[in-house]
Amino acid sequence: MVTDHRKLPRRRGEALNAAIFQATLDELAEAGYAGLTMERVAERARASKASLYRRWPTRIELVMDAVRNSLPIPGAAPDTGNLRDDLVAMLRITAKALSGPAGEAMRGLLGEALSSGSPLRALRKDSQSTARSLMEEVVGRAVERGEVAPGAVTPRRLDAGHALLRHHFLFEGSPVPDELVVAIVDEVLVPLFKPS
What we know:
The protein is mainly α. It contains nine helices and no strands.
């Protein structure tokens, strides 16, 4: 039975966006990117299709915003007190996100990127800048503690861990094994930032 959204209490702004984002992630988990439709998201969010299309003219834009909204934000990086444990904790968060609806969305968006690159450049840029910001936060604290020399912090070193996770995700699938997260930190990241 379809609920008539016009008879429900009216939500606006962030409350409506939150409901739509959650409905989008739920649809991704249930139907995958290929099966996601604006109609099903609107129904699940108990919103009108018009309210979705006013905010997100395409499915790509809706999914990009829902995924962006679900990822950790800069300022929320783990702080365990040492570089290695911070890196392991942060990459575990990323690995978990790749194993859920966000990962399903990324696979679908990559498929669409091959045929139409337009709004996907923004997702790629946002994803990379968020990952780099989180790494800068973690490594910056290690610099302050004296664990890492300031000159060891470079853009490529900051990108390495997430790049390896994405590579595994794209070519091996999910879930990303925890052993891989630990190996990336111990074999790649710690030696990059703390050369012997």
